[in-house]
Amino acid sequence: MHKNADIDAFSSAYYLSEVLGNAVIVSDGLDKYVKNIVDKENLDVRNDIDFDYDEVITVDTASREQLGKFSNLKIDVVYDHHESNNIDARERHVDSSYPSCAEMVYDIHKKKPSRFAALLLLAGIISDTLWFKHANRRTLQIFYEIMNSYDIEFSDIRNIVDMPITFSEKISVLKGFQRIIYRSYGNKIVVATRVSANESIVATELISFADIVFVGSSRKNEIRVIGRSKGTNLLDIFRELSQDFSCKYGGHKNAAGMSCIGELEAILNAALIISAKYIEG
Q1: Fewer CB within 10 Å, N side or C side of the chain?
Q2: Same domain for 140 and 199?
Q3: Are strands 255-261 and 212-219 parallel, antiparallel or unpaired?
Q4: Of 130, 161, 192, which one is at a domain's C-terminal end?
Q5: What pLDDT, in 10s, does the model give residues 135-181?
Q6: Other C-beta atoms within 10 Å of 44: how many?
Q7: Is residue 271 scored above 90 in pLDDT?
């Protein structure tokens, strides 16, 4: 799984561990939602590899850099739904037509999981499609198929994905709004802001009021930028940014991330300028 694995990555890995058997789930960190599930259910997720393995499988990971401290491992099999995936492997299952990795791994193997794994898959689909905002017809078919297999109700899934926003997250969102710079092009709005943490949450909140959002943060010598879009391909914008700045990027056209070396203000301003070109055509 990618560093700070989210519920889509974790649910995909957990399902594959049941399908393949005798598998160990490893990640360089978990996000707060996954950590809450792992702690609550007392699940075994390792942050190191201290054994001999037959093969290494990555899920929901577009590049080696996203694997964190495991970036140098030999990868045997890849399962991913990011069109920017560039990981070499003996076996690659990469299909960006799936809005979530969870629905893709299920659709490939079609093996009925345990009820708990089914709930995780459903939570992964909800999370990565932003409550079906990016879902397609196949997504809904798979979602219903899994729910129907166990008579799962929506309230059962909400118990997994719903977590109250923390005080620090509220502060990050408010600071993000406070530091906004924006440009309007016709009836389109592009927004950029900076925070010190919780970039994804801030970006998700801001996209309700804009057409493209960039949320940046500066940590040590690295600049991190999270993007959200309602239509314009973020990967095109990040590709251009990477030509002028030392950046690595990945994700989807509507939700992507980038890490750079440089100055945050300069990168955000450049993102606004490049966005204008794509919006105005």
Answers
A1: C
A2: no
A3: unpaired
A4: 161
A5: 999 999 999 999 999 999 988 888 777 777 889 999 999 999 999 99
A6: 10
A7: yes
